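One-letter codes give the sequence; the fold follows as tokens. Both lines appear below.
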Amino acid sequence: MTVTVRLWLKLRHIRFVAAHRNVVPADFAERIALPAHQKAADYTVDRSKTAIVGTLIEAAVLLAFTLGGGLAALHDFWSLRLDGLAYGLAMIFSVMVISGLIDLPLSLYSQFVIEARHGFNRMTLGLFISDLLKQTLLGIAIGAPVIAAVLWLMGAMGQYWWLYVWLFWSGFNLLIMFVYPTWIAPLFNKFSPLEDGEMKSRIEALLARCGFRSSGLFIMDGSKRSSHGNAYFTGFGNTKRIVFFDTLLARLEPPEVEAVLAHELGHFRKKHVVKRMVLMFAGSLGFLWLLGQLIDAPWFYAGLGVPAQSTTLALILFFLVMPVFTFLLTPLMSHLSRRHEFEADAYAAQHAAASDLIRALVKLYQDNASTLTPDPLHSLFHDSHPPAAQRIAHLQIQEKPA
């Protein structure tokens, strides 16, 4: 059922975008040329078709692991050779490796065909392989002890193991937020301090007006992988950093960069990051509690094609099938995210010129080939940001005097 809905939404999106390909929406007619609008439509259609293939592959992998007997075969293989935590780690990493290898061709196609076709890819095959190796080694170095700790807690903490696992998982996520900016991110990108000049002066003045303190302003060499542009906050507490893609700074004027940063500061001031963290932690607690109710239920294993029962199998099965059910929550999460974007835009309009943010957004829509005409129902489910027309309209209202 979930797969059917996801495919139907993507097909709707493709038809809607294609149907509006040859006419620029009236609100953007003077800002975006028809060829740029058509490029965005073609890029969106190509990405949506790739997403359809990805959805079908995900469904096939899920069926192969469960009703197809894949997990049962892996259990039979590893249970004869290992036991305890070693068995659990072998099972979980086997599933991760198999899934990753199956996903790899589509990732290569997306990067080196779709992104290249539309002029966005700047990544070499060597860099792709280097990133993959680094991610794999990090996954082993960080993932192995974390998974081992979770499996140990599940087996040693009795009836309320799920609460101990949740406390550990929450603490681990908070730790990652602290160490990511200074220890992990630099493994993949170069971060250079923003040089003195008009840009830095405007940004520092904005930070002072908004009462925001950070550990530094940095430029990231995003251009070595893609021509897409962005800016973001990273870190937590005293490790907060403001990061600009070099592609963003090359495209936007200083007042426009200031307006984009004011929007990001709006997320901070409105406590959106904290609210999302609380929601994530509450959701993880609920899901772990649910797993605690299922872990000793024979029908949970038998119904998914696994004849054996174990802590490891319960954990794997739960996280394999969970996306099928959490998909129903997608519209609610998207709605929350879009509301936060409107709030951050309103904050930006109070501390920078709304007209500058509008110009910046139009440039980013054009440079990133973001469609101006998404299917409304697909957008309701999947878009974390409001449609372009709605967002610009809200900002134009902010321009008007009260």
